[in-house]
Amino acid sequence: MVAQLHLLQQMKMAFPVRLLLFLSSLYPVPISVFARTDGKVDPGDFLSATAGNSSSWLSPSGDFAFGFRQLENSDLFLLSLWYAKIPDRTIVWYANHGDSPAAVAKGSLVNLTADNGLVLTSPQGAQLWKSESISGVAFGVLNDTGNFVLQDDNSGSLWETFDNLTHTILPGQDIEKGGKLWSQQSETNFSKGRFELRMQDDGNLVLVTINLPTEFANAPYYASDTTGDSNSSTAGTKLEFNSSGYMYVLRENGEKLTIKEAETVSARSFYLRTTLNFDGVFVQYSHPKIFTGNVSWSVVWSVPDNICTMTIDSGLGVCGYNSICTLRDQRPTCACPKGYSLLDPNDLYGNCKPDFIQGCEEDKLSPTNDIYEVQMLSNTDWPLSDFMQLNPSTPESCNQSCFEDCLCAVAIYRVETCWKKKLPLSNGRVDSGLNSQAFIKVRKGNLTLPVPQRPNPDDKKMKNQTTLIRMGSALLGTSIFADLMLSAIVCMGFFFIYQKKHSFLPSFTYKELEGATDGFTEELGRGAFGVVYKGILPIGSGVPVEVKKLNCAVQEGEIEFREGEIEFREGEIEFRMEVSMLGQTHHKNLVRPVGYCDEGQKRLLVYEFLGNGTLANLLFGDTKPSWRKRIDIVSGVAKGLLYLHEECSTQILHCDIKPQNILLDDCCNAKIADFGLAKLLMMNQSQTFTAIRGTKGYVAPEWFRNMAITTKVDVYSFGVMLLEVICCRRSIDMENVYEERAILSEWVYDCYLKGLWDPIVDNEMEALHEKTKLERFVMVALWCIQEEPSLRPIMKKVVQMLEGVVEVHVPPCPSPYSRAG
């Protein structure tokens, strides 16, 4: 084939076009090889995603190209439009479905069709994206403006990239009312970020942050102030970026409000683009069309002037929580204070976490009062994290007040006033106009709380040591040996007392939690592990928590050993150790444990309070949540389970994954609750043995077959829940047990075999518009609920399949035995 193509290219220079077309009919050469020079593309033309320089369609001048670009450090390709003549080939538009880029595997194709416009398919032929539901496409054309247009026989526009905005606007392009640009997540991640430029229906052009995964917008950090009602002549009508490179809001009365007063750069001599960057800055760039050497984009103007100092009323600001924003070359950079580090080392603009444990209970447990040192920063502030203001004050008294307050993380002193702040700190910035001092509390390096050591489950140390003591005393009978053994016992006792005192999670007395819950009056829910109550811890103005009373009436696993005045209980020791390990689990999709109580039969766990209810309430309520919200939630659950199974310090099986155990925070982020309880309540407790099998409808078959229990039981339960999330229906419909959809998994599999997608999502258009993703999620769920555990994927592969990183093969029937005969 290579030799044939080379021959044809040589002949193309010497023979007429008719002969070339005749020869091309004899050889199966891709049509896109003979790209037209007028920027036009005919129905039937196609491009393929290949490594290296993929084929592309060019504009007449060759300034712009449309085709596949391989993503950095990835095997995936992005269907996009870019500047073709400059070295970095800057992308100005890309295909996307929902909030995600249409990233595809090698061998994927984009075809121009007369009936469906541009159609993107996988190497297996599955449709991944299409321009729109249009017909009558006569040809496509990539203009020198960078606009790819599908036209009819009369050259009328049917669809164009200029009307399908992403992150960049080009000269000649407008943004009408209701239109918006959105930022990427990062320089290399083209998924939807949390910044948007919106041309609102009231005529106001605003820059806002949104609380993903919702579309809720916080107060603007920039606004053109061109608002007005329908009768106002000063209201904005659209944002125009004219062909000369001048950008303005056009008012109803014809006036033009310039976005930023700056020297206009000629679009004849320079490439111009205006991009909403991933860090929230709206920037106009220029690049010379004729250049030599290493030339890059230059900033013409940017809005706002200093995004670091723009306070966002709610949320985390430009940088993540506990981070500090500094403006450099008109762009923000983020950094963690001393003693803090990035939660995700790969996200330089993400959240920072303290590298030490700070809290009232932890401060009490420290062996000395001199546990903190101060980091002092000038002109630095986190303006939205105050919990107390002191006036009058001095720098010394401000610093001292924070040191003596276990809730205080940072104190800011300015103009005889002290502002005390607690974690998390938001909207951190450096501002030379503040004239302030920041005192940050950092735990001294050699004063960290000890990490409790996990007992070896195969070695009952207490029992063996006690037995050896008794045998040694009987055999030797010497006072010296007895003294040595007694000393060892005493030391061991102090060790366990020390371990209890220095648990990563603070312990509460039963009386304290009884008071916090007002006598356990407000019940939030109940399940196999116990009953959950709402409580308020008396810290500051009150911290809301959830208090779970565990079902621990029978403690068969406890064996007492006595030696002199010291008493050990294996069950209590094991419980405290496991609680300590739970305290070390940190993941954004796990509910955070904040304490515990262990007083004999009274065992309670204290968790952060999440006021947005459970996933069950969201799925099975009166209002159906959006498809985007549902898939974001279930993707979060998958990542949380992956952490429990493979990424935390000790493997944790949940054993009761269901929508009732998935809580939602204020932004509808999923958080797994009750993780580790099966381990805490111990398998040798007869009362708990049945309970930890899970909940009817979500239980893996191996529980009833005397098979080994592994992480695959959680995978099964997750698969059932994934189907519930997709369909917004319960796994078992007890009210209609005789209908065909009573058992959700069997009904979905039948629909899948028949290719019936509409009934699965009850004709939900948002889901059907992402049919490829819908099909992928259903197939993943069917793999997860296979009766044979070995056929189920591990959670790492589940996450990869949901994200589209690995291919999902056709799943077999989940329950072949029930369908036999």
TrEMBL record:
Q: Where do the Protein kinase domain residues begin and end? A: 518-806
**For this UniProt entry, what's an example GO CC term?**
membrane
Pfam families reported in the protein's UniProt record: B_lectin (PF01453), Pkinase (PF00069)
Which reaction is catalysed here? L-seryl-[protein] + ATP = O-phospho-L-seryl-[protein] + ADP + H(+); L-threonyl-[protein] + ATP = O-phospho-L-threonyl-[protein] + ADP + H(+)
Q: Which InterPro entries match?
A: Bulb-type_lectin_dom, Bulb-type_lectin_dom_sf, G-type_lectin_kinases/EP1-like, Kinase-like_dom_sf, Prot_kinase_dom, Ser/Thr_kinase_AS, SRK-like_kinase
Q: Does the keyword Manganese apply?
A: no
Q: Provide the alphabetized UniProt keywords.
A: ATP-binding, Disulfide bond, EGF-like domain, Glycoprotein, Kinase, Membrane, Nucleotide-binding, Receptor, Serine/threonine-protein kinase, Signal, Transferase, Transmembrane, Transmembrane helix
Compartments, record wording = Membrane
Q: Where is the Bulb-type lectin domain?
A: 43-163
Q: Does the keyword Nucleotide-binding apply?
A: yes
User: Any idea which GO molecular function terms this record carries?
Assistant: ATP binding; protein serine kinase activity; protein serine/threonine kinase activity
Top-rank taxon of the source lineage equals Eukaryota
| Membrane topology label | Single-pass membrane protein
> Recorded E.C. number(s)?
2.7.11.1
Q: Where is the signal peptide?
A: 1-35
Q: Which family does it belong to?
A: Belongs to the protein kinase superfamily. Ser/Thr protein kinase family.
> By what name is this protein known?
Receptor-like serine/threonine-protein kinase
